[in-house]
Amino acid sequence: MATIGDELDAMVYFDDVLIPWDRVQHIGNPDHAKWYPQRQFDWVHLETQIRHCVHAELMVGLALLLTQSLGTSTNPVVAAQLAELIRFRETCRAFMIAAEETGFATPGGLFKPNNIYIDFGRAYYLENQAKMVNTLIDFCGRGVVIQPSKREMEDPYIGPKLAEALRGAEISAYDRIKIFRQISERFLSEWGNRHEMFEKFNGTPSCPNNGRDITITAARMAFAASAQWPAGITAAGHRLRYPALGG
């Protein structure tokens, strides 16, 4: 199924499907249905937060490899930008650790991470991710868009000349090109841009407010904490069962 689309650009329509009653979570109850995404996201977004940490680590790793291969890592301006990238990664990781360390056991006996740190950790990533990507691309210069092909590198005449011209102080031209190509495909390709679009709208989008990025997720958290819950629904997110629907 992944080859033909996912949750952002595909919809599945089921017709004439039998759903057992023990699988029904709500029916004919809009007040219950509107809380379903909130309770689900409290669990699902831990995976999102972990993915953000991995992406942040990828950016830092590529930035370190790239600047070392170009010989620019000791430049004071570049070093400061590298430090900012590392701080971004460590802050994302701190939110993840806080969510796990301050979690709690639900009445149903499951361990639930603290969604406060999950939601604000996601907000932090979304607010800063574009800036970090731009910093990484700035490190590349035009090398991220001008790369010789494999055929050109293997050409008996021009290949050796390209290998000599493009090698770094401590890295071969081939390995240096691999770094540029990874950055180009991950952050500048249609696939890479689509991936970032997914992150922005995965669960809830970011929205600008008076020059600052806030998230609907944060507002939803505050709303959920103060809301009058419909009968049968608890903040712990238990699955609602309708005895009248059994059988």
Can you tell me about this structure?
- This protein is mainly alpha-helical and 247 residues long.
- The chain is built from nine helices and four strands, in the order αααββαααααββα.
- Strand 1 and strand 2 form a beta hairpin.
- The protein is elongated.
- It starts with 29 loop residues before the first helix and ends in a 21-residue tail after the last helix.
Q: What gyration radius follows from the Cα positions, in whole Å?
A: 24 Å
- Helix-strand category: mainly alpha
Rough shape? elongated
Largest sheet: 2 strands, antiparallel
Give the terminus-to-terminus CA distance: 34 Å
Helix % is: 55-70%
Strand content: under 5%
What oligomeric state do these chains adopt? single chain
Individual helix count: 9
Order of helices and strands: HHHEEHHHHHEEH
Q: Could you tell me the mean pLDDT?
A: 78
State the total count of DSSP E strands.
4
